[in-house]
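notes to self, project folder thing:

trying the whole complex as one job this time. last attempt i did each chain seperately and stitching them together was a nightmare. two parts in total, labels are on each line so i dont mix them up again. if this works i'll redo the older ones the same way
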Amino acid sequence: MPFQRWQVWITILRISIQERIIYRGDFMLGTLMRFLPIVTQIFLWGAVFSALPSQDGAPGRIVGYSYHDVVAYYLLTMLSRAFSSMPGLASGITRDIRDGTIKRFIVQPIGLLEYLFFYRVAHKLVYHAVAIVPFAVVFYLCRGFFKETPQGLEWVAYVASLILAFLLGFFLEATLGLLGFWFLEVSSFLFIYMLLSFFFSGHMFPIDMLPEPMASLVKLIPLQYLAYFPAAVFLGKIRGTALVTGLAIQAAWVVVFAFLAQLALRQGLRRYSGFGG
Amino acid sequence: MHQLVRHLIIFATFARNSLIRDMTFRANFLIEFISSLSWVFMNLGFYILIFQYTPSLGQDTGWGKYEFFVFTGTALMINSLAGMLFMTNADNFGELIRRGGLDFLLVKPIDTQFLVSLQRVDWSSSGNLLVGLGLTLYSLKCLGTWPSAVTAILYVFYGLCGVVILYSLMFLLAATSVWLGRNETLFDFWFYIVSFGRYPMEIYQGRFGHPFRWFFTFIVPVLIAINVPARFLVEPLRPRSFSDWLLPLFTILATAAAFAICRGVFQLALRSYRSASS
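result (full assembly):
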């Protein structure tokens, strides 16, 4: 029976969507609640900026960000994270390695990475279909903070950076999870990763705020593309050639981690000894 | 008096048992200890960064770098005390109801709320407590203002009031699991609400800030839990208005009210408990 590859993919997608849709109520409430910290952030930054000396009559700025920019930035990183965060991906992979569930991908005519990928795509599609309601409400209420919006082609660049952020998040976490072939327990790696990405992906503040040489160093590692980069593109902080090279580097990191994930899977399966049932 | 001593002895036994339990899984304890500390240091890093750019939080509020760090140290101590003593227990309460384990606690000859609230002490949060203490002392040293004995006593007293307020909110939410069956989202809710109180109340300003501040001071008193004790040490504002003088008095009232409401709802919840499975 000529069962096409894409039919497999669509089947995974369909089943995963049905699975995710069961918990929609709890999930909508949970998403809305995750916006609560914004309230404190808006007031905190308001207080920070109100104490700044004005620059030539204009309100003070921090590394080029006005008060409105910083709040808009914070909201936009939440959107970036909605694309790039992969809850449970890496820990799920190591658990499968440890308890032996991963064996089914050796015998079944379907790759582990492609299965996980389409499972994630389904997860994100459902997530966005539901989360668009709370996101829309919050962004509408905060519309006054968005003084800068992308123009023309910048929209294309922004959407591209979000999609690349999703891909990067997926392959990066998959690679971390696949380290489980060597270490069995990777929760301490994951913890370090989470901690670093919390600080250096720009989730809490624009990474331009970091002192040198830390700022330059942080821009060399791929974490910024998970949250900072798409938000900065939206706010027009990165334009022209810098934007094009930025997108190219982001895409390059995706390719690097896609390759590393494949490599880790191949090498890992070679030394895998099939524990558990 | 006899009752109080008895409860203290029982609590000491709980604390000792929890410590033994934690020490049995020492590596796990160490990981939890370090990971909760790391979050604290991440947040401190963020605050240090903010003060690289601004002299104070808000204009003329008096919350400069070290004043704010006294505040943050206080917040850390109060939050970690509440977390250390009550968090695991509140978490466990839902489980006790779902599985019917509460039956065994109800028959014990001691107050059930006491037993449910204090059975386990989470020693791995003790690191945060120490960091909070260290940060407060260090910041006071940088400011060069040491509190008098009376101020120190008032600080500790109001700090404990803060812990009681946080406890009351937590168990008010936990008690609802008798009716709701599960309470995970409610805990997120507690965490988010309490995190409003992690900043000086002066930051809540303007058209939305004032009603917000009013609500979280007088209706859900999370802002006073940390603001009132911290003010005794740094007092960034000389009491400017009548209401500033009233706030500490109100805190005593609010603490008593919060505890009474929590107690009432908890008793009501116990009466609605219908056991399960056992």
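what i see at first glance: Chain B has a mean pLDDT of 87.
need to look closer tmrw
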